[in-house]
Amino acid sequence: MFRALLPRETSFFDFFEHHAQVTVEGARELLALATETGPIEPRARRIKEIEHENDVITHQCVDALHRTFITPIDRHDIHRLISRMDDVIDLVDGAADRMRLYELTPIRPEVKEFAEILVQATQLVEKAVHGLRNMKGEAAIKAACIEINRLENDGDALFRRAVLALFRETNDAIFVIKWKEVFVDLEAATDRCEDVANLVEGILLEHA
Amino acid sequence: MFRALLPRETSFFDFFEHHAQVTVEGARELLALATETGPIEPRARRIKEIEHENDVITHQCVDALHRTFITPIDRHDIHRLISRMDDVIDLVDGAADRMRLYELTPIRPEVKEFAEILVQATQLVEKAVHGLRNMKGEAAIKAACIEINRLENDGDALFRRAVLALFRETNDAIFVIKWKEVFVDLEAATDRCEDVANLVEGILLEHA
Amino acid sequence: MFRALLPRETSFFDFFEHHAQVTVEGARELLALATETGPIEPRARRIKEIEHENDVITHQCVDALHRTFITPIDRHDIHRLISRMDDVIDLVDGAADRMRLYELTPIRPEVKEFAEILVQATQLVEKAVHGLRNMKGEAAIKAACIEINRLENDGDALFRRAVLALFRETNDAIFVIKWKEVFVDLEAATDRCEDVANLVEGILLEHA
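ok -> structure tokens follow
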């Protein structure tokens, strides 16, 4: 009877999974933006909508946290996890916004490579947070986290390659500065995926 | 009798509140620096003094932490909170120092806008850490944290606008690099205010 | 009998100490790279090997964490500590890699100064994590952490000085951008040493 007054414990996992799904969609929009030849405005606008969508989920999650007496995993961890998850799409939006504002067309090929890494990494984040729901399949969650770490290393190497290509192709420092801002955001987005993987691994360590 | 040997528990809240007040003063100095037409050295020097003042408070707080057996909130959280709080003024000092070193006059108008955001955000941090003292007024603390989050979003948007304005006004890449360093520091200062808000929200979740 | 099934608790301290020793070696290679006049490739390659070596230690440590029922210190803290420790050599490798890729010779004098700071800071990290093993010599550990904080401040000041020197010597913005990337990595490496010191201080607070 009393328990009926409490939100269902699983709702936090619903927030994580929904948020992760929406982030994957954002990464896919970035991939489309990088692959298509038309104007980037529509895709950049869609990414901003997705970013807002995830802001709403994040706020609902934190709100639920304030109203819930017993949480399935440590409160701090829930808070940290949803916050780090939310950083990923913020940075993808930052990159898209900068390409739009600075009118950076044509889109450089490394954006597509970053988008491919991010589609994979966000899908693995989705898998990892899904695994938290029942704390089963520990090996599969760990494998996803290790793979996210590997993708983050790829992101690092890609960033260095992307910037080196800029230096080799142009002496226009302003052009370099603008594109570097885009690549910094995209590389940071892969870093935040790794942070999420590390948090999930940490939560798993507490419960497994 | 035994309790008399322990530092008063509330001292940690004294450290938080004192530190927060001094940081507000630092943000106000930045606003004065950005608004006045005279040389910026005196204001930049005052900000550095304020930064040192807060270093002392931070070290006293951490020291007290080592000497206290029972803390009113989790030890890790006290340590993290005072450290993140201390980052704000470090970054404000970084921005002022760069404007001084690079002789960046006239001060660009976005510095005033950042300073206005930072005065508001640091006042809200002051309010939030004050609220921790008795864990009352949970709604008011949460409202302060949400408002800090909103200001951080404003800081993000302002950063993009400030940099776009640079690109539109000049082809002098060195000038762009110098001013970008200042804006990066100021935007990071609003980020650290948000980190503090998130920490306060997390502490509240543990105790409310 | 049952305890024989558990990994020895002290193994985590073995991981920390081994990792810290290897990182000191990396900092020394950077110092050699900055001091010698020959080509930097061999030293940069050796730093990358060291970085891989530490990746292996980090993975072994996290793996052991998954297989251990009772840990001598909080699981989260072990995970966070080895992760932050691993960031230091990643950033040293990043700096060396960029100098190599961008063919940045001659090496600017501030690289040597950064390397000297990093040799000291990583030796202090080694000392601090060694102290964790028996939680004795609290004063000595704290002194090491305070000294690391001081070195991080030196790193900050050195970064500003290094960049100011670039602005004073050249109008070649691309040259400035390349060297700034190197200095950003080196300054971030000192920041990560400070993060490690803060974590050690936090662990000490829990156990002392």
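DSSP finds six helices and no strands in chain A.
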